[in-house]
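Reopening this ticket.

The earlier resolution said the output was attached, but the attachment link was broken on my side. Pasting everything inline this time so it's all in one place.
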Amino acid sequence: MKSIPEPSRRRLVLLERLLAEFTEKNITSQKIEELTGWSAAVVRRDISLLELNFGASNGYKVADLKGALDKLLDLVPNSPHACCIVGLGRMGQALLDNRELYESPFKIVAGFDSSVNRTEILRSIFPLHPTTMLEQVIKEENIRYAILTVEPSEAHSIASRLAACGIKGIVNYTPCVLTVPPGTKVENVSLLTSLENLSAMSADENIERKEKGA
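Inline output:
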C-alpha cells in the first residue's frame, strides 16, 4: 500500500469511527460528504489510497470499507493494543474511569505516577505503579501506547524513557512539544491548540469571503 498523506490518514481514522455507528449496508461518497462536510471528491480520493476495488459510482459496502480501514489502522479483532497512562494528577485521574475505550481495540492495562502515595490511594480497574517501575511493567505487559498527562517539568524525560522502552505512540496531553525518535509517534491533544486551529480556520474563511466579494 502506498504511503498515505497525514490529512488523508486523519480523515480515514474519523471515517472508520463513523462507519462503526453506521447501520446501512452501503454508503456513498455523497452521504459521507453530508455527514462529515468533506467533499465527495476528497472522500473518493482518500478511499482510493486504500488500493481496493470499490465501486464508487454505486457506493461502498460498509463492511468491506470498514474492514479495509481496520487493516490500515492495525485494528485486529480480539487483539487489543495495550496502553498505559503516565501521570495521575487531575487529568490522569479523569482518564482512569474513561469509558470511551471499553469497546475499542485499545485497552489501558497500567497507570504510573511519580507519587507513590497516589498509586496507593487512587482506585482503578488496572494496576497503578510508581514511575520507577515504568520500564519493567511496559516490557512485561507488552504496552504499545502511552497517554502522557504528567507535569510539564517531567514531560520530556518521561517521553524519552517511553521511547526507549519501545513505545510506538504517545498521546500527549501536556503543553510541551516533545522530541522523540522516529520510531515513536506523538499525537498532541491540547484544548488551546484546537481553539487556535478553529480560530485560524474561521479567519481563512473570512479572508476567502472578502476576496470573492472584492
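Reporter confirms the inline version is readable. The longest helix spans residues 191-213. The chain has a mean pLDDT of 88.
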